[in-house]
Amino acid sequence: MRAWLQTLSVSKKLGGALTLTGAALTVALAFLGNVSEPPSAAWQAFIAFLAIVAQIGAAIMFGKEGRTDPAFAQRSVSRLVGLAKRASEARETAELLAERGAPVGEVREAIGVLSVHLSYFEEGYLDAIDDWRTFHPDAVQAAESLRSVDDE
């Protein structure tokens, strides 16, 4: 149980605690309403109010879980736009090379340019994966394990 609790984020832990608090206050209110001398209506209303606040707090905490930070999304999309531009440049280089029937020297130079573009792709993809690893490590781990199964 302790190992499982350590895997939970702070917002999940706080959301769970608030949910339990709200439920406990609701049960306490039901119990206190049925005793021989129930608390005043003001106290019952206060306990109900605290239960409502706890449930709203739990909803807010759970609602925060798994949301993408807009700055993260912008950085990730920006990286993908850059990779698309590099892919376009690499495609144009390959097309020019294929159309012209270039001499060996130009072919070697073009292959060098393509190699540079490919290294940018590799670096960009690894950086994008690291972005996701920061935001959602479980998703990356699942994708990597699926990929390793597919590669076998």
Entry summary:
This protein has helices spanning 2-7, 10-33, 41-64, 70-100, 104-135, 137-151. It is mainly alpha-helical.
How would you explain this protein's 3D organization?
This protein is an all-alpha fold and about 150 residues long. The chain has two domains: about 60 residues; about 80 residues. The chain has six helices and no strands. The protein starts with a helix and ends with a helix.
- Total number of helical segments? 6
Helix-strand pattern, N to C? HHHHHH
Q: Span from first to last CA?
A: 35 Å
The whole-angstrom Rg is 29 Å
Detail the topology: elements first, then pairings.
Elements: H1 2-7, H2 10-33, H3 41-64, H4 70-100, H5 104-135, H6 137-151
